[in-house]
Amino acid sequence: MVQIVPSILAADFARLAEQIENVERGGATMLHLDVMDGHFVPNFTIGPPVVESIRKVTRARLDVHLMIEDPDYYAPIFIQAGADQVSVHQEVCRNLDRTLRMIRNEGALAGVVINPATPVAALEEVLDVADYVLIMSVNPGFGGQHFLPRSLEKVRQLDRERQQRRLQLPIEIDGGITLENLPDVVRAGCDWIVTGSSLFHTPDPAAAFSQMRQTAQEATAVRV
């Protein structure tokens, strides 16, 4: 089933618990947490203490996306803080197979991420190790960017690959997702759809979530 995954990056951190409660009231069961180090991407966001605090106020699955240069060191720390699943970038991992297996051994699901300029083919040797794949549909580092349409073909390519290899591998997408492009993203083959501004920058995040979930469900029946 397709899931809408609220991105905490777009929330009001002064009212974070309240904002999380709002999207949960709309039906959210997973939250996306972007971790940026100011090196791999040109921005800083949250650290383990914030993840630990969020863990205390929600039972939702915490999907932690590490946009950092040393995921091997920090992944276990974020898992200890409460992450249920951790994704790392193909572009930064010197030994991606080992990193993914380490995350799984630490007790979390292991995801692999590719930037817009990275081809799906770069993941060929780890698709049977990863628990999910995250395709960036913007260049990582900042929220509120416009969706890159070419990302849809990468989703389709990955969807064909997992079907051919009979892999139970959810495809996640992150960046510029709106109510308008959501049907195209679902029909391309995405399972987990991360969105931030389209939820938290509205008067009623719960209602916005419900509307996006309904739109996704309607698009699921006509995937291409």
How would you describe this structure to a colleague?
This protein is an alpha/beta fold and 224 residues long. It has a single domain (3-220), classed as TIM Barrel (Alpha-Beta Barrel), CATH 3.20.20. The chain is 38% helix and 19% strand. The protein is built from eight helices and eight strands. It has helices spanning 16-26, 48-57, 71-81, 96-105, 151-165, 182-188, 197-200, 205-220; strands at 3-6, 30-36, 61-67, 85-89, 109-114, 132-136, 171-174, 192-195. It has an eight-stranded parallel sheet with strand order 1-8-7-6-5-4-3-2. Helix 2 packs parallel to helix 3 (71-81). The protein is globular, with a radius of gyration of 16 Å. The two termini are 16 Å apart. The model has no long low-confidence stretch (mean pLDDT 95).
Put the structure in a nutshell.
The chain has one domain (3-220): TIM Barrel (Alpha-Beta Barrel). The protein is 38% helix and 19% strand.
SSE blueprint:
Layout: E1 3-6, H1 16-26, E2 30-36, H2 48-57, E3 61-67, H3 71-81, E4 85-89, H4 96-105, E5 109-114, E6 132-136, H5 151-165, E7 171-174, H6 182-188, E8 192-195, H7 197-200, H8 205-220
Parallel strand pairs: 1-8, 2-3, 3-4, 4-5, 5-6, 6-7, 7-8
Average pLDDT works out at 95
What CATH architecture label applies?
Alpha-Beta Barrel
Regions with pLDDT < 50 over 5+ consecutive residues?
A: none
Distance between the termini: 16 Å
Q: Briefly, what CATH class?
A: Alpha Beta
Q: Label the structural class.
A: alpha/beta
CATH superfamily: Aldolase class I
If you consult CATH, what is the topology? Answer: TIM Barrel
**What is the CA-atom radius of gyration, in angstroms?**
16 Å
Q: How would a crystallographer describe the biggest sheet?
A: 8 strands, parallel
Helix content: 25-40%
Domains counted in the coordinates: how many? 1
Number of helices: 8
Largest sheet strand order: 1-8-7-6-5-4-3-2
Question: Oligomeric state of the chains?
Answer: single chain
Q: Tell me the fraction of residues in β-strands, as a range.
A: 15-25%
List the secondary-structure elements in sequence, H or E.
EHEHEHEHEEHEHEHH
DSSP, total strands: 8
* Envelope shape: globular
